[in-house]
Amino acid sequence: MAKSDSAVEHATDAPDDVRPGDPGTGIVLADAPVNPGFPPHRPRVTDQDPKKNRSAERTVFTLFYISIAGSIWAVASYLAFPIESGNLADVRMSTMYIGIGSAFALLGIGIGAVHWAKALMSDKEGIDIRHPIHGSDETRQTAIEIFEQANEESGFGRRTLIRNTLIGALVAFPLPAVVLFRGLAPQNQDPVVALSHTMWKQGLRLTKDPSGLPIKASDVTLGSVFHVIPDGLYDAPDMLEEKGKAAVLLMRLDPGDLHPSPGRESWAYNGIVAYSKICTHVGCPVALYEQNTHHLLCPCHQSQFDITHEAEVIFGPASRPLPQLPITIDAEGYLVAQSDFHEPVGPSFWERS
Ligand code: FES
Description:
The chain is an alpha+beta fold. α4 runs antiparallel to α6 (160-172). The chain is elongated and about 90 Å long. Mean pLDDT is 86; it is low at 1-14. A hairpin with a 4-residue loop joins β5 (288-290) and β6 (295-297). The strands form three sheets. A five-stranded antiparallel beta sheet has the order 1-2-3-4-9. Strands 5-6-7-8 form a four-stranded antiparallel beta sheet, with no helix packed on it. It contains nine helices and eleven strands. It has helices at 2-12, 45-48, 50-80, 88-119, 137-154, 160-172, 175-183, 191-196, 239-246, and strands at residues 206-208, 225-230, 248-252, 272-276, 288-290, 295-297, 304-306, 312-315, 324-325, 327-329, 335-337. 24% of the residues are buried. It folds into two domains: 45-126 and 140-183; 191-337, Rieske [2Fe-2S] iron-sulphur domain (Rieske Iron-sulfur Protein), CATH 2.102.10. The structure holds FE2/S2 (inorganic) cluster.
């Protein structure tokens, strides 16, 4: 109680126009918290027992070896499970094993570095007083001394096995990324040609995604929507790439609601229209259809396309309409393509004329 009274007394001694916190006018209360300082230093077991020290050292370089092995594993997995076949089982295996290798590569470096710092590097506690930043000779000399001291205390120069395995792990770690990015390039194909064409061609049936069942025009009721892939997609050598280009949305509107431009009057069949599902902004699937307004919405950046006006852009960052796939029916009444798209699908690329 006496302490509290003294604090109030001290505080009321301040002039009326001075508030606590004003620069140069701080009021130190008598019951202000006291800096507790550092807790007593507890020496680590690795500093007291040479055996534990060697064991920690072994743990650290073993973790770096594990990291190297993880990187090599990831590269080997990439080679062992090629995904060019488009076989989903291969893609799953490749993803899983590359992921496992990369995880070990990253964790090995991370855990090894933390364990090295905690168990082996210098355990001295100190206070680094702030001072102005400048580059005088004296400061540089101090910096060099600090580096040398850090080198000495961390053992970076002395513990050569740890240092070299860490360098090896850091060098090996980016290798999976190099081979993975290489795998993104088209195989033996001119990328411009590959991006300009899809597997749609005259007479190819439109089938449901993912069942692959053909679609009869009579089954497409007014207002319905179908996610569509080309017949035979699952047998294509580059199934995933082909699907990424050829995916289509099929809708049926009242033919009176459609406003085709000259030359495109025959691209729809009885109000059934097919448009590329690949957004012309940056390629997300445009899969949200608003039945009443006949608008297609891309969920990525909210571009909207008006199906009644050849999928022209009415909102959002997409710069051009979704390409239309000309369709008709075959002798059995199934919907088929009249041709490929008449322009490249998806986002613009720099070679496009
Ligand atoms: S990808 Fe469709 S709006 Fe951006």
